[in-house]
Amino acid sequence: MKNLIMGFLILFVAIGILAGCGSGGGGGLVPGGNAATSLGPNTRLVLSFPWPGGSGKIEPSRSVWIFAGKLEVRIQGDGLPAPVSASATQKDVVNGQVTLSFDNIPPGKKEVSVAVFNPDGFLIAHRTQTISVAGDTALVLTVGITLFDGTLAPQIFPMAIGDSVLWTNSGALTHRLVGDKGEFDSQDLLPNQSYSFTPAITEDIPYHCTLHSGETGALHVTDPNLVSTTTTTGGGGVSPSGPHILGINPTSGIEGTPVIITGSGFGVGQGSSTVSFQASNAPPVLASGGVSWQDTQIQVNVPPGLPSGGVSIFVTVGGIPSNNVLFSISGGSGPPQIMAVNPPSGNFATELVVQGSGFGTTQGTVRFNGNPAMGPAPIWTDTEIHITPPLQAGSGLLTVEVSTSGGVLSNSANFQYLAEYNLPGPNTPLISGLQNPWAVALDFDGAIYVSFTSPENKASKYTTTGALDTTWGSLGSISTSPVECWGLVVDSARDTFLTQGAPQAEVKKYNITGTSLLASGSLYQPSLPENESAAFGKGIALDGAGNPWVCDSDNNAIERYSLSGGVFNLVNRFTPFTAGGPYGVAADNRPNFSYIYVTDTGANAVRKFVSSNSPTDMGAIISGANAPTAPKGIAVARSGHIFVTDTGANTIRIYDLSGTWIKDIGLIGYLSAFSSIGGLAVDKVGNIYVADAVSAGAVWKLVPSATSMVPMGRVRQR
Length: 718
Known about the structure:
By secondary structure, the chain is mainly beta. The chain contains one helix and 56 strands.
């Protein structure tokens, strides 16, 4: 189980409208908090806080932490002789949000203070927001920002001087948020990690992710003391200081998208007031249709004729314009534009990032010389697409084009397709001088991890160039007893899972310094059914939920575990393998995919499992004439292609998602010392890393190349 970060207590998503704000009945007991105070005229204030994430979904692995957290709200201002407060916890969540109802709140300007505490009672985020109450008022407020892979929610975050905003990485990639003018720097945020920032002056602070160009946002920082009380006069009454926008929801969309604008000073009723959308160096365009107008909240539709990209929204009341808030037009009137394709070369196993504008938020199609890309895009935003090229027969320069879901075609860009694999130099491994390396794994930064069987009995980390990492160094001897280290996998926090052979038959977990994160003697063998031979762990992989899958070769089983209290607990167990069969295991954890692949060495086959709370054995998807001989190592590329080591022929065999054979990468006759290939890994640009498990003592790196230096091995007909 992943090491959870308390930041997941934060409540997310952009400001939105509250449906059914009149529910809850008279008296107004606040869920999980205090009874509403009866003051002044009969006016109700309803505040809602989405919990957590855009869909309100609470992930099971995180719910124990969220449940223990607490949200507190304090209201003070005009007409209140003393502040009123309320609190709530996760148990108060209904339909993805917590709703706090306050009866008999007098009209006028109010300051709402929101604080979020972790299970230990430490403050992890807070903000204040000035609102205007005029009659029954319902608002949806946010406290933090969710960082997904490719998007931020909300993209524009309104806050006051001295408030703290907390970003939480809810994606699978590493991100780094930096103010455009150097106002802050989060450093690398691994999945589940958080970063907070407290602005000290009134300003708009745009920021971006240094690792993913499409991830941009802005903090809109105001001084609440400068926002005057709204004086409502009916039929477009205005505030003396003019309207002020606090936030919008959503922050991007297409023509006709409903947009909710929350703030103050809009007046009661629209009258002659307007909402404008304005692109750079263009006249403003008035919002169209679907107008709902309240003093603190407006709903309009995105007007037609706007170009793709960023536009400004502002409200004009009584001739006085409000501040501007950024909105991103996706799929606007202009065609999509490709600005860059990275990397500029690769093959079917390479994950490409197509950057530009106007792609739309609904997935369209990416084509290479007219052929659609391989499978659905795991990431598709208006400015960035992640995709893999189709399989080509040979090398060549391909034309890349994007077509929106509405069929609008982009400009074209070039991509150099590389059909074969090459080595850096004849008989030159990336890492040499090793003794019995077996498994190979990669982390998010491309660092290389290698496990060693007897006599080394250890695991080591190497840089991308193959140098031993002196900062992390070797994890050292795992045990004083003679054991063999086989399977190896690295999670998003760079913690290492390692399987060991008899007599320990353990799965161990280590942090980046090589310190064990599990209690001594955390055996998985005692969890197995009775009357079995000694367990012998070979391959290991982590599914999308972070659960380890372990090959128990002595008991001919693949086993799925959970990790609780420093001990691995058996959850599921499958035994459809031949004697000594299960050897290597790999996980396909791409979005919308959840599969586990296991090599059955004795049967010359690869089995496929659906990874879920109730895993399903889909049987052998690779077998028969085109199956590898004595397959051991296995890896799944970002493209979904399956790479298997054929130890009988010392070749690497490549298959597609359905198990159909594509090609072999042959090594016989070229690497005379290459005698026993073992584990392998494939990085995001399609490079292959494979271990020579016996005499050569090396890790080889095979690079996509237009001219193959590696002769093809045994090629079998389909």
